[in-house]
Amino acid sequence: MHRRLLGAGIPILENIQNLDQATGPVVQLMALPVKISGVEAAPARAVIFDGWPF
Question: Pick from 21, 23, 5: which is nearest to 13 by CA?
């Protein structure tokens, strides 16, 4: 599945936790990856902006 998604240009986020704590009807998720050269994956800081407007 990873190869199909990435081959289609769809990024993958795994192990995202505490999404149940978002309370707004609209939330925005940002994934801020660590820039590491020569690797196929890297850790990212996931941030949710909860509520409207942002």
Answer: 5
Residues 6+ apart with CB under 8 A from 12: 2, 5, 6
CA 23-33-40 angle, to 5 degrees, is 130
Question: Measuring CA to CA, which residue among 48, 45, 51, 43 is closest to residue 19?
Answer: 48
CA 46 to chain centre: 5
Does the pLDDT value for residue 35 go beyond 90? Answer: no
Tens-digit pLDDT profile for residues 4-24: 998 999 988 999 998 888 888
